[in-house]
Amino acid sequence: MKLKERAKKLKTDVPAVFLALKRKETPWFAKILAAIVVVYALSPVDLIPDFIPIFGYLDDVIILPALIALTAKLIPKSVFADCRAQSEGMWQNGKPKKWYYAIPFVLIWVAVIALIVIAFI
Predict the structure, then answer these.
(1) Distance (Å, rounded) from C-alpha 98 to C-alpha 21?
(2) Counting Cβ atoms within 10 Å, is residue 117 exposed (0-12), middle (13-18) or buried (19+)?
(3) What pLDDT is recorded for position 89?
(4) Which end of the chain is least crowded, N or C, by CB within 10 Å?
């Protein structure tokens, strides 16, 4: 699969995961992972900042697609196929920009910085 095809698939799979999160047929452990995927995908702050050479885009290229694939395997195939069909064209105007999705990642970075400061004091 080419890179453009994968990017297009991500644009339908993330909203499909979001829609599956709301479905009763989705198991609870898949819902937890789906919530993590949606928050991570919509967060304007990455776990690995993009300005770090090579590793900065690692989350966009490897981590997010891997999380989506794992979540899709945990959701029943019929449910995910239905959600994927519903999500077609859902992000035509780009992904929603919600700053409160960044809170978990900002807290992780604050904790890392605090641990580093404490280690050197």
Answers:
(1) 18
(2) exposed
(3) 67
(4) C
Buried b (16+ CB within 10 A) or exposed e, 54-68: eeeeebeeeebbebb
Backbone angles phi, psi at 15, to 5 degrees: -65, -30
How far apart are alpha carbons 95 and 4 in whole angstroms?
17
CA 96 from centre of chain: 13
Closest CA to 17 of 69, 94, 93, 95: 69
3-class secondary-structure state, position 28 = helix
What is the number of residues in the chain? 121
